[in-house]
Design brief:
Order of helices and strands: HHHHEEHEHEEEEEE
Number of strands: 9
Strand order of the largest sheet: 4-5-6-7-8-9
Shape: globular
Number of helices: 6
Helix content: 25-40%
Length: 259
């Protein structure tokens, strides 16, 4: 097959994949919250508001309960009310201007925002490859958790990490330097997945600018980091923080939702 034919096949495959994103949020017309309306690393708080806003009625009510008429005022309320508390997992506040918030603390913030409402507890799931887990099993586990939360009315929050590629070919997971972490919210994915699938396309809400983009995830057989690699060409995810000459990957490492 010549280069032109390969190119056309790739184009048609991509178009088919994105056309098959038939599992979408209950409230797709919600205007995404833009983290850039406030200074500091606010992707976590913005992702919470986006997940609630794009969700079903009971989750939307959590978002509308946050006072304020602008992204800036609502983000400020979430950070001051829920982020500037002592972390139960680290010796620091849950949220700081320079470090943002981690997976466990963001989950705690989400559950506190539930208050006394009679709705499901929000949980997190680490999506790194487990021992004896095959590539296709990892992809199915990722898809299953994302799909379950979406079907239950809460678009899942996805934790992405940019990791710098080690120079050693036999490098282990700990050799992949963490460059940057970023939270986004899932906006669409395939409702069903082939049992032997090695990846799938998706649509996501990036709080950096409050934009909706398309991406994909797959297993990279040449990558020694134990996670599915994502392609999110419209999102920086710390790319500007790479050292000169460094190559990297962006991985999906965890999700927050109702499972």
């Amino acid at each position: 097959m010549n280069a032109l034919k390969i190119h056309l096949v790739l184009i048609s495959t991509t178009l088919f994949a994105y056309a098959d994103l038939d599992l979408t949020p209950p409230n797709p017309t919600f205007t995404p919250v833009n983290q850039l309306k406030i200074s500091g690393n606010a992707c976590g708080p913005a992702a919470l508001l986006n997940a609630f806003g794009f969700g079903s009625q009971k989750w939307q009510e959590l978002g509308t309960a946050v006072p304020g008429s602008t992204d800036r005022s609502r983000l400020t309320y979430v950070i001051r009310g829920y982020g500037l508390k002592q972390s139960q997992h680290l010796d620091r506040l849950r949220w700081t201007k320079t470090r943002g918030v981690n997976l466990l603390d963001l989950t705690d913030m989400a559950n506190e925002m539930r208050g006394s409402r009679w709705i499901e507890k929000i949980e997190n799931e680490v999506l790194l490859k487990e021992r004896r887990e095959s590539d296709s099993e990892l992809i199915r586990r990722i898809h299953s958790h994302l799909a379950i939360s979406m079907k239950k009315g809460l678009p899942p929050i996805i934790s992405l990490q940019r990791r710098a590629r080690p120079s050693r070919k036999d490098a282990s997971a700990i050799d992949w330097r963490l460059v940057h972490g970023h939270f986004v919210v899932l906006a669409a994915l395939p409702a069903k997945l082939d049992r032997k699938a090695t990846g799938f396309s998706f649509r996501y809400i990036d709080p950096w600018g409050g934009k909706i983009h398309e991406g994909s995830l797959r297993i990279d057989p040449n990558c020694t980091y134990p996670a599915a690699v994502v392609s999110v060409p419209n999102s920086d995810v710390g790319k500007r923080s790479l050292k000169k000459g460094e190559s990297s990957i962006v991985a999906i490492v965890a999700t927050i939702g109702v499972f």
